[in-house]
Design brief:
tripeptide transmembrane transporter activity; mainly alpha; 17 helices; 2 domains; membrane; Growth Hormone, Chain: A; 7 strands; about 75% helix; MFS_Transporters; two-stranded parallel ribbon; three-stranded antiparallel beta sheet; single chain
């Protein structure tokens, strides 16, 4: 990366050394590399997780329990982004929070690397907590590198940063997945810790290039608020410890004592947050109307992520048991399927950006609602495609790898239609009072979708059954068509947002 650093004499106000990173503030290189290594550790562990959970030499779980654990873990990562943002805003500031997050994530992966079932869930919990702290704040620091929202380099900076995410996500299964599957599961988890360690080291060394405001606590807690927060935290922690001690000592403890409460929280909290915002009397009529429209997008997004994130659990477990994971006779690790999405994102995102601009010049760019509905229809279509390899496997044959690649391809196109639009519409429709919180609300759609998958698995629903897959596919397609059919009503509610 060093060759891309050049002097920027025309921008003396850029934080740091005055050098640039591909024409952007030097601090972007620090955040790019931090995010790349964090995503390397996160997606590497995530690619191994469902396979380790079902492996005889791993946790030896059933497919349903493994899917529940995986889904609860993902829902927690996104659920914790809101308290992660609060922690930076009120206690440490973004820079120190991200540094602390890196330490927590690294410790989590090291805990997973210990060959003990007893420490496994503690490791997952640490990685989820650290990811929530980091995810909520590193993007904030990217924005702080620029001279306000009108800086012409800002969108390009976030594009470069997004490439870091996908580079890490692409490389992780190829490296960590290969080591975990072929050498040893715990060696793979240890390699994820090394990746996060490298990211943390370069973050600490390069943090001098970040914007000064990244060290500022925007709204520090008063002494009274600190005392109240500590009391409430201690109370709830005490209740949890006592409750689980009673369950454990009585001999009634099972994994569901952890999974069920967490999945219920993953569904209930997003609903409570939306209700609280919608019922806020300080919002004017226009903001209330936009929030009514936003709920449509939120529910649709939850359905999308419920299916999309099964690419790492349901599809991965199916591939492990019932797919011919080979190309021209060369067999590859199952975890490599998780590299398909990021490489497609990197290849297709520029094409989509160019395509929308070209249509916009002609006045033919589809509306936000049409893009959103199309994304839902595509993710539903991906599960209709899934019915083919399921049928092949039921006939006693191994399904070709090309089927799975086709499913991931369809889901990726759907993601490119829905995810960027969702992020954009979230910022545009956010009430002024909740402007800084609404990105966390968008992540709660992922939480709700993954928690729903977890609840289905806990309830004993076999997500690899053709009937269940067809039902999920139909739900997504119907939701997409419904969004399209009611587009006029939603457009009216959206007001001046397009």
């Amino acid at each position: 990366m060093a060759s891309s650093l050049t002097k920027d004499s025309a921008s003396p106000g850029i934080p740091g050394s005055g050098k640039t990173f591909f024409g952007h503030p030097r601090g972007l290189a620090t955040l790019f590399m931090t995010e790349m290594w964090e995503r390397f550790s996160y997606y590497g562990m995530r690619a191994l997780l469902p396979l380790y959970l079902v492996a005889p030499g791993g946790m030896a779980m059933s497919a349903g329990t493994a899917t529940a654990v995986y889904s609860v873990y993902l829902s927690l990562v996104y659920l914790l982004t809101m308290p992660g943002g609060w922690f930076a805003d009120r206690i440490l500031g973004p820079r120190k929070t991200v540094a602390a997050a890196g330490v927590v994530i690294m410790l989590g992966h090291l805990t997973l690397a210990l060959p003990s079932a007893g420490t496994f869930y503690a490791g997952l919990g640490l990685v989820a907590i650290g990811s929530g702290l980091l995810k909520a704040n590193i993007s904030t620091m990217v924005g702080q590198l620029y001279d306000g929202p009108d800086d012409p380099r800002r969108d390009g900076g976030f594009t470069v940063f997004y490439m870091g995410i996908n580079l890490g996500a692409f490389a992780a299964p190829l490296v960590i997945g290969t080591v975990g599957e072929n050498v040893g599961w715990h060696f793979g988890f240890a390699l994820a810790a090394v990746g996060m360690g490298l990211g943390l080291l370069q973050f600490l060394l390069g943090s001098r290039h970040l914007a000064p405001q990244s060290s500022v606590v925007p709204k520090p807690l008063s002494a009274a608020e600190k005392s109240a927060t500590l009391r409430k935290s201690a109370l709830w922690a005490g209740i949890a410890v006592v409750a689980y001690a009673v369950v454990g000592l009585s001999g009634n403890y099972t994994l569901n004592w952890i999974l069920v409460p967490l999945t219920l929280l993953g569904v209930i909290i997003p609903v409570l947050v939306l209700v609280r915002i919608k019922r806020d009397r300080e919002l004017d009529r226009d903001e209330q109307s936009k929030m009514s429209a936003y709920i449509w997008f939120f529910v649709a997004a939850a359905v999308f992520w419920m299916i999309y994130d099964q690419g790492g659990s349901t599809l991965s477990i199916f591939a492990n048991a019932s797919a011919d994971n080979s190309v021209f006779g060369w067999e590859f690790p199952v975890s490599w399927y998780q590299s398909v999405n990021p490489v497609l994102i990197m290849a297709l995102a520029p094409v989509f950006a160019w395509f929308w601009l070209a249509l916009n010049r002609r006045g033919k760019e589809p509306s936000t609602i049409v893009k959103f509905g199309s994304g839902l229809v595509l993710v539903g279509t991906s599960f209709f495609l899934f019915l083919a390899p399921l049928s092949i496997a039921e006939g006693g044959h191994k399904a070709a790898a090309a089927w799975l690649v086709a499913i991931y391809f369809t889901q990726t196109v759907g993601e490119l239609l829905l995810s960027p639009v969702g992020l954009s519409v979230t910022t545009k429709m956010a009430p002024a009072k909740y402007a800084s919180q609404m990105m966390g609300v968008w992540f709660l759609a992922v939480t709700a979708g993954d928690a729903t998958t977890g609840l289905l698995s806990i309830a004993g629903v076999d997500l690899n059954r053709p009937g269940v897959v067809a039902m999920e596919a139909t739900l997504a397609v119907v939701a997409g068509v419904a969004v399209w059919m009611y587009r006029s009503k939603v457009k009216t509610l959206m007001g001046d947002v397009r």
